[in-house]
Write a structure and sequence with these properties.
single chain, 1 helix, 5 strands
Length: about 80
C-alpha cells in the first residue's frame, strides 16, 4: 500500500507491506476478487512490525465507501 505522510503532504508516499490471511480464509470472511480496485483509497488498521519497518498484520479495513471490508478473524483459544 502507498501511504501518504500526513506531516509532509508533498513527500512521496511510503510503501507499506500488509500481511493478510490465506486467500480462502479471506474469501470466507467476505473478501472477493472485486472487493478492491487498483487505486482505491481505503483505511486500514494494522499491527505494525516491532522493528519499525513499514509493514504489519491487517486488523481491519474500511472501503472507499466507508463500509467495513470483510469480517474480522475469530480467535479460537
Amino acid at each position: 500500500m502507498l501511504v501518504p505522510d500526513p506531516d509532509h503532504p508533498q513527500a512521496a508516499p511510503v510503501e507499506w507491506g500488509v500481511e493478510m490471511d490465506s486467500p480462502l480464509a479471506l474469501f470466507r470472511r467476505g473478501w472477493k476478487p472485486e472487493t478492491l480496485k487498483a487505486g482505491d483509497k481505503i483505511t486500514v488498521v494494522v499491527n505494525p512490525l516491532r522493528d519499525g519497518r513499514p509493514s504489519g498484520q491487517l486488523v481491519s479495513a474500511t472501503g472507499p465507501d466507508g463500509k467495513p471490508i470483510g469480517r474480522a478473524a475469530v480467535e479460537t483459544k
